[in-house]
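Schema walk-through. Below, the input block comes first and the output block second. Nothing else is stored per chain. Lengths vary across the set, and this one has 411 residues.
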Amino acid sequence: MTGPTPPARPDSALARLAPTMELTQGQTALKDAVLAFCRAHRADTHALFIIEGDAGTGKSLLLNTLFTAIQDAARGDDAADPLHGSDNRLLVNHPEMIKLYRNISESARNLRKKDFERPTTFINQMDGTGRRADIVLVDEAHLLLTRSDPYNRFRHENQLAEIIRLAHVVVIVFDARQVLKFKSLWSDATLARLVAGYPVVTRRLERQFRMHAHADVMAWVHAFRDGILRPLPAPQEFDFRIFDDAQALYEAIRQRNAQYGLCRVLATYDYPYTLNGRDHFITEGRFHLRWDRAMPQARLPWAERPDTIDEVGSVYTIQGFDLNYAGVILGPSVTYDPHTDRIVIDPARYEDRAAFTGRDGVAEPDAVMARIILNSINVLMTRGVRGLYVYASNAALRARLATLWARRQGA
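--- output ---
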């Protein structure tokens, strides 16, 4: 029998997402705007509020704070509030994030674990009942399925379309640069078609909260996710380093973890992994460490478990979470063309073949595969609050990064 979740460390993922975290003036204004939208449209047939923003712009914190305010009104004593008595949910298609939200709910008076669900579970529970939820919030909406997926028990054509059908008001947070699979392939045209004819408001979060880094670091990461190599930013408080040895990177991350906690090694999905109950390893020279173990029964999410310092996390275990330091291994699919001085993606070397299923009808599938891998790099490189360490498996890319590093050190 397990007790309540212990108090979170101030720098833990749970603490950083908790509704007790103070919002900025801009976030507070946006939260108030969404609450007003929900109150104005609760009785409408359908209405949609879209919150866009890059990784690290505080989307999940805003959403959880917003949902807490909605549930406080729904379960509060003010019967005159339009939200009083409303039936509401927060959905996220990420099993590690579900754990985090449900753990947070234990310390909030008006939140219940049942308020948080996976989209497919919500759709299948509501389908055919003739009922609709009042307000549904969707975190990581870029992970919603855009086609049928019978393996995961989703037999409709688009998860967002079904959520809209089954709710009066839908609020989503969305980042097109974090789409990781063909079956979750979103475009502006797809989204516009789904919401045509409904009241729709779109707002964008711009300020970077996660990475305590100067704008030139963010510009470097954003350029890399587009295949462009820039000179490395000058030394600063944010600890940004290039390594030519994966074991040295791992040892540095272990040292930072002993200092600060919440530091982990991550890798692109370029190394074999099978859900068969066995350990699978990543080997790069003298570096040899297992992939993250599948532990759906674990109470804490992967990023919060102390033992995972001895594992390598994937995009699927770390998306949506903060780390203090992230050590990122760029696997064999991430290569370099010296003639163009650009990153070249080789999808044939990407081991996450499930990400590439469902290509039928997709224009330029090779370009989309490359984009998916670059999106995964974007997710991995934007986890660290204090620092980012990078190692490249490809010899040509490793040499080019080493040149950039030497120039920065000599500047």
